[in-house]
Amino acid sequence: MRRIGFVGAGFIAKVHMENLSEIDDVEIAGVMEPDDKRAGEVIENYGAKRFNSLKDMKDAGIDAVYITSPNRTHFNFAREAVQLGMDVFVEKPMTISLKDARELEDAVSKAGVIFQVGHNRRFAYVYKFIKEKIDSGEVKPHSFQIKMNRGELQVPSWVSDRSFTGGFLFETTLHLFDMMRYLFGDVDEMYVLGKRSVYSDYDDWAIAVKMKSGVIGTFVSSAHTSWMVPFERVEVYGEHKMLANDEMERVSYSVGDKLEAIVESKDFSKVDFRKKWGYLEEDKLFVKALKREVAPPVTVHDGVKVIEIVDACYKAVERKDPHIKFEWEG
Ligand SMILES: NC(=O)c1ccc[n+]([C@@H]2O[C@H](COP(=O)([O-])OP(=O)(O)OC[C@H]3O[C@@H](n4cnc5c(N)ncnc54)[C@H](O)[C@@H]3O)[C@@H](O)[C@H]2O)c1
Question: What pLDDT is attached to residue 329?
Answer without folding.
Answer: 65
